[in-house]
Specification:
The complex is a heterotrimer of chains A (345), B (545) and C (340). Chain A is built from eight helices and 21 strands. Chain A has 345 residues and is of the alpha+beta class. In chain A, helix 3 (107-120) packs across helix 4. The longest helix of chain A is centred in the middle third of the chain and has 18 residues, at 166-183. Chain B is mainly α and 545 residues long. In chain B, strands 1-2 form a two-stranded parallel sheet. Chain C is an alpha/beta fold and 340 residues long. Chain C is globular. Chain C contains 15 helices and eleven strands. The longest helix of chain C has 18 residues, at 4-21. In chain C, 44% of the residues lie in helices and 13% in strands. Classes of the chains: A alpha+beta (345), B mainly alpha (545), C alpha/beta (340). Chains in contact: A-B, B-C. Chains B and C meet through helix 1, helix 6, helix 11, helix 14 and helix 16 of B and helix 1, helix 2, strand 2, helix 3 and helix 8 of C.
Chain lengths: 345, 545, 340
């Protein structure tokens, strides 16, 4: 459906995106996350046709739309886009905004389509309003309806929730996901918020410095990060130094762990083991203890920063009634489902 | 708590606002004494000309300015091309060129005995009548002259409007299947419409107020007709009635402009994004630069060069002691008018800030409408009440004290300064209010809580913060007075010619080259606010990127 | 209110400036002049130096100045009205803004035809409105009178400015005075039929048009030609035409004057008369006439070298007051003849 092959984008001599390959099947929702300046928005704009590519190619439904020196104009791509600032036309009503991209259709057909879309995004009565009369969340829905109206081949969403209140975001993200799924729309969203990405996406790509670090399902990203950057960027956690005892066992200050598959690590290799806060369980009867150096109350949970005897720090997510004060020693137990480690040095 | 009638602020506004509104009231009051014979004559002969020519002049100039201003503003706001930054302020230069002065220079160049046609005849061997050449001294010539110097009004507002449009709007249009051209017509232009119409209305008001150009070109319009009826036919009341008609036109225009802007507040709601200017191919860059250069060349460079050329030919006898006196007269008059106008503006602005009731707000707004009223209208509106007052003061003084006071008001600078105050209050008020708006009431309170007395608050907070806007108000009024022609022509007292009047007299006497020096002086001083404007524009665009 | 001081301060400033601007008028001589400042100011400065009388000057369009004196009424500060043509002086007289002056100095130095019979206005300089022709295209032997310019042989060969202009109105008035209104009208029709182009621009433009080959004959006042000859930028064009003095075998060439009158309510009448007498003095005449490229009204003062180059001529002796009287008739005649 949508495929990027060895794509690179350059501004003059300065390459901002390099060697990116990914693909989405019909109806799949993809998401690009990464710190600001990582090239994710540039990539999205390249798919829309606003940026020419310097290497590789983009295909949409087997049609090549971008290749070096050959960029199909955005208006000819049939790509829908929802912008960070929504970019709604303030001089038009909601209905006129939605029908803006409907060309070569009868007035009645357009009216029906607008009605249908307003229904879809849950604003059936607001067609005659002007944009300034809508709340932020409503504007977002109108922007989505407008982008969907011409039945685009792929929908692009550029940080669509960044200008909304935190409590609105998640609900809206879920709503939009269900709309897209219902219509079986292929979509790509760009965000810097991984939880948004997890809520929305079937496939998530983590980008850094113009490179795609990993392209995987949310579960895989969290639990099987491909490299240190992804491990660090997705979720919280610390990297605990360890030493390989053999190809399957690693020794750390929290004890010895087994991994179930054979790695190419050799005995004596120095590695870092990824420890998520939820990997460490607070257990009063455990013999292993650590000192609370910091805590932050999270409602249902408390996130403790613990200092191990060796001086290393780990995070621990404990249920909130396990209230301990800073300086206290608490017992912990490691509950690792699988081991993620990266060679050091 | 003071009683309402004892409130000095309220009186400080009501009294001067009434005086400033008086000329317009008088002009409309003239309608109460019908002049059937004169009107029968005007209707039979020239009235249709006045109406038609004035309407063509206003709309022709408005559309011309709209076309030039919008086109160039779109280019500099949306595209990246070599020379764009310089063009951004070069396009303002024609603001420094009064329309009557550009009219003199083009007449000198394009008349049949001028260098252009002479060269054409020498080169082609044609003689008069063998070829067609556009007649510059015509209604359309006047439209062209006015459009060339008034388009910056549209340009400035349009550029800001286009710049404020987020570039994602264009991208949204394109993902919805619109080409950039379709986007311009369907989105960018409708969005900028309020700004464009405001600029166009300003240009049209200036065109309706113009006297120097149409008089020189011999085009009968309301302003020249007003002069003719007043001075040629000696009927001041009928002239005032013509003035009332002209003012109604202008007020209608003003009303339409306000009405079309009623939705403007909705239009600046969206988030601002950094506007990415589109790049152009080298060939397109050259065309964009050329398109932007044309109005600057025709609206400023050519006339300024012609004036400079004439001035170098004539300065050895025009640049003398009397020219120095002329400059001194003009500058001191402009300075007095600027100071008074700014003092009034400060008074009004503070009153508006401190008294938010209608009794203060409304008179200030009415008094500030004067900028829409043509100078000829204000002149007649000032002359009638002042002459009446003079007659009565004189009679009383003679009766009671046995002395003659003569033309105490109408024959002195009082009349002129009053006319300038009416016409240019809006200019100074706008600037001063903008400055005062930056001083939030919280700052007063903060200063008081830090131990300042009210006077210290004024000295340590308001004066430093207002200095910039007061200076710019002074400068703007100063230059406007410098360029003002018709009111000065009618109201100036003894020994008080200004540069504008002198340029007008010399040009009317077919001595264009001798008129160049005073004209050039006006243009050079007129450049000051343009440079200041350009600098503030530059700083803003730096802040944006 | 805490900022009351501000209001008081602002008012004080305004009042101070108002007092400054309303300078009181001293007893001097006040001139309303249609003559441009630079063509008269040096003479007035000399008058001040010689007599100690301060001169206040306001310049402007003559019609505007007359209206201004009229509307100012008995309050008018105007002492002297200076006009550049007799038509406007007559208009001022009709509007009753001038007063009669009895001065032996003025009546003896100024020829009778060049001043108002009742002493309301006096001619100060004189100019003629001759025919200017392009040598080579026109044989001066073909030229004779103003009346002859209506002859079909001049078809498409004449340049003259608009009938709105007072010099043409005065010239047509002189034809009415001499030939009668009917003859003047058919003359005007013939003249209009001979125009090389629709009237536009001023007298200088007609001369330039002739020099540029648009027409063979231009009609213009002598001082315009004199001024062009004295100006290096126009000299070449001005030298392309020659002066022909029409009607030399009959009444003489049409002339006009610049002149002045004393305002009806002149506050400084004595000084006003003194100024007029000063301006008819030999030295003043010499300078004033020369600065304006005009002929002195005094017969004992010689014209400038440039004007002498045009040759001697016989001037029409018509009482100029008559031109003013016939001005309205002249406009109607020209309107009917289709003279734009």
């Amino acid at each position: 459906m949508l495929a990027l092959e060895q794509l690179a984008i350059a501004y003059g001599p300065h390459t901002v995106v390099r060697d990116i390959s990914l693909s989405l099947a019909q109806g799949q929702i993809g998401c690009l996350v990464g710190p600001s300046g990582c090239g994710k928005t540039t990539l999205l704009r390249a798919i829309a046709g606003f940026e020419p590519v310097s290497n590789g190619r983009i295909t949409l439904q087997q049609q090549q739309v971008s290749a070096p020196g050959d960029t199909l104009s955005p208006e000819l791509r049939h790509v829908g886009m929802v912008f960070q600032d929504f970019a709604l036309f303030p001089h038009l009503t909601v209905a006129d905004n939605i029908s803006f991209g409907l060309k070569n259709q009868s007035r009645a057909a357009r009216r029906d389509r607008v009605k249908q879309l307003l229904q879809l995004v849950g604003l059936p009565d607001l067609g005659q309003r002007y944009i300034h009369q809508l709340s932020g969340g409503q504007q977002q829905r109108v922007a989505l309806a407008r982008a969907l109206a011409p039945e685009p081949r792929v929908l692009l969403l550029d940080e669509p929730f960044s200008s909304l209140d935190a409590e609105l975001r998640e609900a809206l993200a879920r709503d939009i996901r269900s709309i897209l799924k219902k219509l079986s729309i292929t979509a790509i969203m760009v965000t810097h918020d991984q939880f948004e990405a997890f809520t929305m996406a079937d496939m998530v790509g983590v980008m850094d410095h113009g490179n795609l670090q990993q392209w995987a399902t949310p579960y895989e990203l969290y639990h099987k990060p491909a490299n240190r950057f992804v491990a660090d960027f997705i979720g919280r956690g610390v990297l605990l130094p360890g030493t390989m005892l053999d190809s399957q066992q690693v020794e750390t200050s929290l004890g010895v762990f087994n991994q179930y598959y054979v790695s190419d690590a050799r005995t004596g290799d120095k590695v870092d083991v990824l420890i998520r806060p939820d990997d460490i369980v607070h257990d009063d009867i455990s013999g292993v203890t650590a000192t609370v150096t910091d805590k932050s109350f999270r409602g249902s949970h408390i996130l403790y920063t613990l200092a191990l005897g060796t001086g290393e720090q780990v995070l621990c997510l404990a249920l909130s009634h396990h209230n301990h004060s800073i300086g206290e020693k608490i017992g912990i137990r490691l509950d690792l489902d699988h081991l993620v480690m990266f060679p050091r040095g | 708590m003071l009683k309402a009638w004892a409130d000095i602020w309220r009186w400080s506004v009501l009294v001067p606002a009434f005086v400033l509104a008086l000329p317009v009231i008088i002009v409309f009051g003239s309608l109460l004494s019908p002049q059937p014979e004169v009107w029968a004559h005007l209707r039979a002969t020239v009235l249709a000309d006045y109406v038609i020519n004035s309407v063509i002049l206003a709309f022709g100039t408005g559309f011309g300015a709209l076309l030039i201003g919008t086109g160039t503003a779109w280019l500099v706001a949306q595209y990246q091309f070599t020379g764009r930054r310089v063009m951004e302020w070069l396009l303002l230069l024609p603001l420094a060129m009064p329309a009557y002065i550009i009219a003199y220079t083009y007449t000198g160049m394009l008349d049949f005995a001028g260098p252009v046609q002479t060269t054409l005849r020498q080169w082609s061997g044609w003689s008069y009548g063998d070829y067609w050449f556009p007649e510059i001294r015509s209604l359309w010539g006047a439209v062209l002259m006015l459009a060339l110097v008034l388009y910056p009004y549209v340009y400035m507002l349009a550029r800001n409007a286009f710049r404020e449009q987020s570039s994602s709007l264009l991208e949204a249009s394109r993902t919805l299947g619109m080409t950039p051209r379709q986007h311009f017509w369907k989105v960018a232009l409708p969005l900028a419409r309020p700004a464009l119409l405001t600029g166009m209305a300003l240009a049209m008001m200036e065109a309706l107020a113009d006297y120097g150009t149409v008089q020189y070109f011999g085009v009968p319009t309301f302003t020249t007709g007003l002069f003719r009826t007043w001075f040629g036919m000696g009927n001041r009341v009928a002239a005032a009635q013509l003035a009332a008609m002209l003012t109604s036109f202008v007020l209608l225009l003003l009303f339409l402009e306000r009405w079309s802007r009623r939705k403007i507040r909705y239009f600046y709601h969206g988030q601002r994004q950094v506007n990415i200017r589109r790049r152009l191919s080298p060939w397109q860059q050259r065309s964009a630069l050329l398109i932007c250069l044309l109005p600057v060349i025709f609206g400023f460079v050519i006339p300024a060069a012609q004036l400079t050329f004439w001035a170098t030919e004539t300065w050895h006898y025009t640049l003398d002691q009397r020219f120095a006196t002329l400059v001194w007269n003009t500058f001191s008059l402009a300075a007095i008018a600027a100071v008074i106008s700014v003092l009034l503006a400060l008074l009004f602005a503070y009153a508006k800030r401190l008294r938010r009731d209608l009794l203060v707000q409304a008179p200030v707004r009415i008094a500030a409408l004067g900028y829409a009223v043509p100078g000829t209208v204000i002149a007649i509106g000032v002359m009638i009440p002042l002459a009446w007052l003079d007659t009565h003061i004189d009679l009383l003084a003679e009766e009671w004290f046995g002395i003659r006071t003569g033309l105490l008001l109408s024959g002195t600078l009082v009349a002129l300064v009053l006319a300038y105050s009416v016409r240019f209050l809006a200019v100074s008020l706008h600037s001063v209010e903008a400055g005062l708006d930056r001083i939030k009431p919280g700052m007063d309170n903060a200063a008081r809580s830090l131990g300042c007395t009210p006077v210290q608050v004024l000295g340590r907070v308001h004066v430093p913060l207002l200095r910039g806007s007061v200076l710019s108000a002074l400068l703007l009024v100063f230059v406007d007075v410098l360029k003002e022609l018709p009111a000065t022509l009618i109201l100036r007292p003894f020994n008080f010619n200004t540069l504008a009047v002198r340029a007008h007299e010399l040009a009317s006497d077919e001595r264009l080259a001798d008129a160049a020096l005073p004209a050039l002086a006006i243009v050079l001083v007129g450049l000051l606010p343009v440079i200041w404007l350009a600098r503030s524009v530059d700083q803003r665009s730096k802040g944006n990127s | 209110m805490k900022l009351k001081q501000t209001a008081v301060l602002l008012w004080a400033g305004l009042a101070g400036l108002a007092v400054n601007t309303a300078e009181l008028l001293a007893a001097e001589v006040n001139i309303y002049s249609a003559r441009q400042e630079e063509l008269i100011k040096p003479l007035l400065d000399k008058f001040t130096a010689d007599t100690g009388i301060k001169v206040n000057l306001i310049t402007g369009n003559p019609d505007e100045l007359i209206s201004r004196i009229a509307s100012e009424g008995r309050n008018s500060p105007a002492d002297v009205l200076i006009s550049t043509d007799v038509g406007r002086l007559y208009r001022a007289k009709q509007q009753d803004v001038l007063q009669s002056i009895q001065s032996d100095v003025l009546t003896t130095t100024i020829p009778e035809a060049l001043r108002d019979p009742a002493g309301l206005w006096f001619g100060l300089t004189m100019r003629a409105r001759p025919i200017l022709y392009v040598p080579g295209k026109v044989d001066p032997a073909e030229l004779s009178t103003y009346e002859d310019l209506a002859s079909p042989k001049w078809k498409g060969r004449i340049c003259i400015r608009s009938s709105n202009n007072i010099y043409n109105q005065s010239m047509t008035a002189s034809l009415i005075a001499h030939d009668g209104a009917a003859a003047a009208e058919s003359w005007a029709k013939g003249l209009v039929a001979n125009f090389a182009m629709p009237p536009k621009g001023g007298d200088r433009d007609q001369i330039k048009a002739a020099a540029a080959g648009v027409c063979d004959i231009a009609i213009a006042n002598t001082y315009y030609l004199g001024g062009m000859l004295a100006d290096p930028r126009d000299k070449v064009e001005a030298e392309k035409v020659k002066v022909f003095w029409p009607n030399q075998d009959g009444r003489g060439t049409h002339i006009n004057i610049s002149g002045a009158g004393v305002a009806k309510y002149a506050p400084n009448k004595a000084q006003a008369v003194q100024l007029l007498e000063y301006m008819t003095g030999a030295e003043a005449q010499q300078w004033y006439a020369e600065a304006n490229h005009e002929y002195p009204v005094r017969t004992d003062v010689k014209a400038s070298a440039v004007l002498q180059g045009f040759g001697e001529f016989k001037a029409d002796q018509l009482q100029l007051d008559k031109l003013g009287e016939l001005n309205a008739e002249a406009i109607r005649v020209m309107d009917r003849a289709g003279w734009k």
